[in-house]
Amino acid sequence: YRVMPSFYYFAAAEYGHERAREFGNQIADLMKQHGAGNKRLAVDRLSHMGTDAIRSHGIELFDGLEITEQARMIKSADELVLMQRAIEVCETGMKAMHDAMVPGITENALWAKLHETNIALGGEWIETRLLSSGPRTNPWFRECSMRPIEPGDMVSFDTDLVGPYGYCADISRSWRCGDGKPDDEQRRLYANAHEQLHHDMALLKPGMSFREVIENAWPIPDEFMSNRYTCLLHGVGLADEYPSLKHRIDFEKKGYDGYLEEGMTVCVESMIASEGGREGVKLEEQVLITKDGAKAMSSYRFEEDWL
């Protein structure tokens, strides 16, 4: 165990470069003592000062994320127990949000119910602020605001919650605020999102290539294509993880291939919104890849009476 010199400006100010050199010296000494002549070192995150200091000793640096993402891809039985606990906490927070969702509450105040529940039950933090209402649900990725939610508004959110023990619960639902039934457009959007999500979940099996999943995914109608979600599905563990499967239209430019394996946990995504439309529906389910296919890890209800 060694105490490394801190060389970031907050701690070191004008002594940063001097302390970075000492940091490089310490790493080089560790490599000499324990590396058996190997000068290849994988690093997760490091500023250019630390990188330069290590490389000055002839050490070859590599991106540690490639190694850790692959190592994290398959979840152990113990990890799944911890992840399930995070999902339980997340669903408790979602119920608190649903109970508090009355006309006039602000998006921020509603989102705070999820944070409050997570912290009270031993959770750690929430990665985003993705809750929006009414016209702010389309396009997606607006963070929550001081907007009061109005009667009849669609309310869409993405939890991105890191719960107890550091595991992520990444679930999306869309609700209607206030009394009364959804209008025809809200029902139409929801039905498409529900169909996309469950079609794509039903596809997933160990041994499928990413390309095979993408080619057999739910065909997004042209009307919703421009406001599609950024990916078809992505891995999840301590946070969003490898892999990220792009849509068919994006595959050649942004995608990559690989294989689904038993023990992977992934989040299947849907965002349905018309270009220029008033509202959008965001749904997402976290699933475990088993030998028999995808098993939902969340039990939080969908609005099936809208279908």
Provide key terms for this protein.
alpha+beta, globular, 3-stranded antiparallel beta sheet, 13 strands, single chain, 5-stranded antiparallel beta sheet, 10 helices, 307 residues
Q: Could you explain how this protein is built, in words?
A:
- The protein is an alpha+beta fold.
- It has helices spanning 9-12, 16-34, 48-55, 64-72, 77-100, 107-120, 184-203, 210-215, 222-225, 251-254; strands spanning 40-43, 60-63, 125-126, 131-133, 154-158, 161-162, 168-169, 172-176, 233-236, 240-245, 265-272, 281-290, 293-296.
- The longest helix is centred in the N-terminal third of the chain and has 24 residues, at 77-100.
- The chain is globular and about 70 Å long.
- The model has no long low-confidence stretch (mean pLDDT 97).
Indicate the mean pLDDT: 97
Label the structural class.
alpha+beta
Shape: globular
How many β-strand runs?
13
Helix content: 25-40%
> What is the helix/strand order?
HHEHEHHHEEEEEEHHHEEHEEE
The radius of gyration computed from the alpha-carbon positions, rounded to a whole number of angstroms, is 23 Å
Largest sheet properties: 5 strands, antiparallel
Give start-end ranges of low-pLDDT stretches: none
Strand order of the largest sheet: 10-9-11-12-13
Total helical elements: 10
| Proportion in β-strands | 15-25%
Cα separation of the termini? 59 Å
